[in-house]
Amino acid sequence: MSTLRALPQGFTRVDEYRELRAEGLSRRDIEEALRSGALVRARRDVYACGPIDEPLLQALRIGGRLACASAARALGLWEPQDTRLHVHVWDGSTRLRDPSDRFQRLARRDGVVLHWSDLDADDGTRCTTSVTAAVRCIARCLGVHEAIRVADSAMQRRRATRGEMRLALHGFEWNEEPAIEAVDALCGSGYETDAKLLLRAAGLEHRQQVRIARVGDVDFMVGGCVIVEIDGRATHEQTFERDRARDAEALLQGYITVRVSAAWLAGNHDRFVELVRAALAMHPRG
After folding, report:
1. N or C end of the chain, less CB within 10 A?
2. Residue 167 belongs to what H/E stretch?
3. Does residue 127 share a domain with residue 85?
């Protein structure tokens, strides 16, 4: 018995056996497509148009679709650090299979998180839940902070509206306020979201993506005088030189620049706030 639902196709086409036959494929056609790799059998009566990413193949093999952090990754959103396979299986699903072997029942769940009734069975595609459902699931499973990171990326990458993110985070709070109030479309990475939340929690007045003449857009302007920049994990040589030139021009215009790497920020949340406060104390306008 198939586990698929009447949902739209996603980034990989997924069909039941009966649907392939209804499209005019004979049994011989299907077997030939399997031999050539044009089709991949995920489990009994469930086929994907190959090639197919391993996480999706495993989710289909289990008997569901990608959810939570795994859906965020597949949908091109910020990727939570949780590397487990998150799978949405519908209420009433039976015969769940091992993610690595469609002939074996799902017994051990090491590295696999199953999501049941906490998701809408009718949203999203056969490959993943919707962006809204992914963010809400992340809030429940991995915490509100991680959900805000993903929600920020969804809006910044124009994969969701504020209304959709409001729905996703309804009922959740961050720092004693509705979580949606901490979400915007200005953070280009989860590390920028971290910096934003740290500045908000510390009560430091700041603006994001501020344009300064001859400097360009900066990640944060704190107190009107301190620039905060979060460098990504990979800093190329050309970016290194450009960034130092920007910092020099900013200093000539009377700004102090605090530039930290994403890796440093990840392990130094408390010191980050101290660093920004120190820069503010050094500035005459701080």
Report:
1. N
2. helix 162-168
3. yes
The C-alpha atoms of residue 104 and residue 111 are separated, in whole angstroms, by 17
- Vertex 221 angle, CA 215 and 223, to 5°: 135
Instruction: Kindly state whether residues 201 and 239 are assigned to the same domain.
Output: yes
pLDDT greater than 70 at residue 21: yes
Range(s) of the domain holding residue 112: 51-168
Question: Cα separation of 268 and 235, whole Å?
Answer: 19
CATH code, 252 = 3.40.960.10
The full DSSP string for 122-165 is: TSS-SSB--HHHHHHHHHHHT-HHHHHHHHHHHHHTTSS-HHHH
The pair of three-digit structure tokens given for residue 172, joined into one six-digit string: 């959740």
**Residues 142 and 82 sit within 8 Å (Cβ to Cβ):** yes
What's the whole-number average pLDDT of the chain?
A: 93
Distance CA 148, CA 171 (A): 13
Instruction: For residues 160 and 196, state if they share a domain.
Output: no
Q: Domain total for the chain?
A: 2
What is the number of alpha carbons within 13 Å of residue 217 lying toward its C-beta? 6
Q: Fill in the DSSP letter of residue 273.
A: H
pTM, to two decimals? 0.91
